[in-house]
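TICKET: design request
STATUS: open
ATTACHED STRUCTURE:
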């Protein structure tokens, strides 16, 4: 990746620089023409992997106020930059071009912690400079070769003579070398490997949609990774710059939200994670400690402008064995905010694995591929069962142990240090059990009826113990210390209760909440305590610990708001869904169609755009995929390919106006639908083997 301010200068401060494999290969690249820095005119991304910067320089002594020289810099995240100087004035220009280079070859982890190493002394090499640190080195080569190289100052110099109307260009290439890694790291999408999703056509009355979808897909494409030995199995890195590697939960969320564009991303993600799932053959010791992770889940600062490619980042999960309970996927503890305990991303990923496999099957993932992944899903269900069963293996039906907590903790740890079960974990476990039961039944495996019965029991206990009656109509408990002792936090994690999961015949599973409880939640989500006008705050503004820039205490997380929009619309609360949809679309304009992971949850006021969060990844896989899902979900496509059926039920209020979507994928074949301004769907292209229906 490459990071700079909008002026294009790499100044070695903060995150500035070119990075490869988690190392800053070049920290400084400051351009001066005739001893002057160009006046910045424009700096913007042209794609997730490239940026363009334009500046101007006046020729000294020229009385004309118009700048005679323009400087264009085209920067690619793979380390290539092309600089073009144009003379648009009426006089010849004779002046030097100098580029000052430098690097510390620091690691992204050190930079994240605020540790800035001293710049290294450069060495002259053919056509450029070289820097060396034990185990690492980098070179910058220029074409054409510079007229002079000043190693001590790290300066490349050309003496330019430009006639009126002439132009001159130089290409700089930063290359990195390092010692051999312990394992072969993931790579970007290889040349010739197609994108793991279809590229949809979007035509909409709302022009914000036509900006948001292609830019979100472009961002997501820049985050694609593949294992070195399995280049066709693609999955998404979590985000740039700090989580440029595989984080299991984020990769699954992104693949799930992208299912309307095909199942290839889901299949690649599931296979990659199945290879990383713990089972007895890769951990003979068998026991694990809580909170073990092979990849980072923290967020830190992101710059004003960044470009990325699918290179391996500092936070990747290696393919080797790791300690973990049977069936668990890798993941660490995630900060839960000031009022809630940390959440375990390994638990979230393990439960979501079953959901993604079940829903990819409904969207048309071939049965043979589903069958190959089913043992990994059964191991994930076994990890869930171990968390809510007694020593004999029988499900617990009462008491604190009957709710799901951290799957990575042993029974002894859970007994010694009980954790409050969280509401969103119950929703994920409930959906996992129901969809797991459907998979087991469909493929002739035992246990489906038992999982279905456990899910129904969990639903009854949840409605009784996790609901808090109050004067506003009631609300769920964010977590439960014990029977009758809910945690007082009012958090946006409630939205996971609306994410019920795709089932048979285009239906969704019944929610953990009953109808009136869902109505009360819908009304609360669009009240000012949650809805800031740009989306949902992660914590109620009424909380004494509310902080609009707190990533779990008040910031808007795009993913959660998008889940709320889809869940509310599916539950029949289309007005409330439309309110939150409008907030996200308005925010997307302020971020030029590239929504970050999160932004400040300050109340929306006229003339004040949403404030970027200093710790947000941009792009982030989950927010980019959620942005696409936000639009596609309004078509209301609900497939059940194993049953030969697809249901289309768009929002009756047509909040986006007329919407035409082409290039969707159901059963691996094109699917196109047009939604009228009165919410009527017309399917214009569909696989002939599928029966169309509405409900």
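STATUS: resolved
RESOLUTION: sequence designed for all positions
ATTACHED SEQUENCE:
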């Amino acid at each position: 990746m490459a990071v700079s301010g909008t002026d294009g200068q790499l100044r070695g401060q903060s995150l500035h620089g070119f990075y490869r494999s988690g190392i800053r290969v070049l920290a400084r690249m400051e351009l001066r023409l005739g001893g002057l820095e160009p006046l910045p005119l424009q700096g913007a991304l042209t794609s997730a992997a490239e940026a363009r910067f334009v500046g101007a320089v006046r020729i000294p002594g020229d009385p004309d106020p118009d700048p005679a020289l323009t400087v264009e810099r085209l920067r690619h995240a793979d380390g290539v930059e092309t600089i073009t100087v144009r003379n648009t004035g009426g006089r010849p220009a004779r002046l030097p071009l100098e580029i000052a280079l430098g690097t510390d070859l620091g690691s992204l982890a050190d930079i994240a912690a605020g540790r800035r190493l001293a710049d290294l002394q450069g060495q002259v090499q053919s056509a450029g400079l070289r820097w060396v640190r034990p185990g690492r080195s980098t070179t910058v080569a220029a074409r054409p070769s510079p007229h002079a190289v000043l190693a001590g100052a790290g300066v490349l110099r050309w003496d330019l003579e430009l006639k009126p109307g002439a132009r001159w260009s130089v290409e700089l290439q930063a290359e990195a070398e390092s010692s051999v890694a312990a394992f072969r790291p993931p790579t970007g999408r290889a040349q010739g490997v197609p994108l793991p999703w279809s590229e949809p056509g979007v035509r909409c009355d709302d022009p914000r949609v036509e900006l948001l979808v292609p830019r979100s897909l472009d961002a997501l494409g820049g985050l694609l990774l593949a294992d070195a030995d399995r280049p066709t199995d693609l999955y998404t890195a979590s985000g740039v710059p700090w989580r440029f590697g595989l984080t299991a939960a984020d990769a699954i969320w992104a693949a799930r939200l992208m299912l309307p564009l095909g199942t290839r991303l889901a299949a690649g993600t599931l296979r990659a994670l199945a290879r990383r799932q713990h089972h007895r053959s890769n951990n003979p010791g068998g026991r694990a400690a809580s909170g073990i992770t092979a990849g980072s889940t923290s967020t830190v600062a992101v710059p004003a402008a960044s470009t990325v490619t699918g290179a391996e980042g500092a936070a990747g999960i290696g393919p080797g064995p790791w300690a973990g309970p049977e069936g668990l996927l890798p993941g660490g503890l995630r900060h839960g905010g000031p009022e809630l305990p940390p959440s375990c991303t390994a638990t979230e990923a393990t439960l979501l694995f079953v959901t993604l496999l079940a829903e990819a099957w409904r969207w048309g993932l071939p049965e043979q591929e589903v069958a190959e992944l089913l043992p990994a899903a059964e191991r994930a269900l076994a990890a869930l069962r171990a968390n809510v069963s007694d020593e004999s293996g029988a499900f617990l039906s009462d008491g604190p142990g009957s709710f799901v907590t951290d799957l990575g903790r042993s029974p002894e740890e859970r007994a010694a240090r009980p954790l409050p079960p969280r509401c969103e974990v119950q929703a994920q476990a409930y959906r996992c059990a129901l969809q797991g039961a459907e998979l087991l039944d469909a493929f002739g495996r035992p246990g489906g009826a038992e999982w279905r019965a456990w899910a129904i029991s969990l639903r009854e206990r949840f409605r009784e113990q996790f609901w808090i009656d109050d004067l506003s109509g009631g609300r769920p408990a964010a977590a439960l210390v014990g029977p009758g002792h809910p945690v007082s936090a009012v958090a946006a994690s409630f939205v996971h209760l609306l994410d019920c999961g795709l089932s048979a015949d285009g239906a969704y599973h019944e929610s953990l909440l009953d109808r009136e409880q869902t109505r009360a939640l819908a009304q609360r989500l669009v009240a000012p305590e949650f809805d800031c006008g740009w989306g949902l705050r992660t914590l109620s503004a009424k909380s004494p610990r509310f902080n609009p820039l707190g990533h779990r205490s008040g910031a808007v997380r795009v993913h959660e708001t998008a889940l709320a929009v889809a869940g509310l619309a599916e539950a029949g609360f289309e007005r409330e869904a439309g309110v939150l949809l409008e907030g996200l679309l308005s925010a997307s304009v302020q971020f030029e169609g590239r929504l970050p992971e999160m932004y400040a949850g300050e109340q929306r006021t006229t003339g004040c755009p949403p404030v970027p969060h200093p710790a947000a990844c941009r792009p982030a896989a989950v927010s980019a995929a959620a942005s696409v899902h936000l639009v596609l979900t309004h078509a209301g496509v609900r497939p059940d390919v194993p049953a030969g059926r697809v249901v289309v039920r768009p929002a009756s209020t047509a909040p986006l106006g007329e919407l035409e979507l082409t290039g969707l994928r159901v059963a691996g074949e094109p699917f196109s639908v047009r939604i009228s301004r009165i919410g009527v769907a017309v399917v214009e292209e569909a696989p002939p083997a599928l029966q169309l229906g509405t409900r």
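CLOSING REMARK: The first strand starts at residue 2 and ends at 4. The first helix runs from residue 108 to 112.
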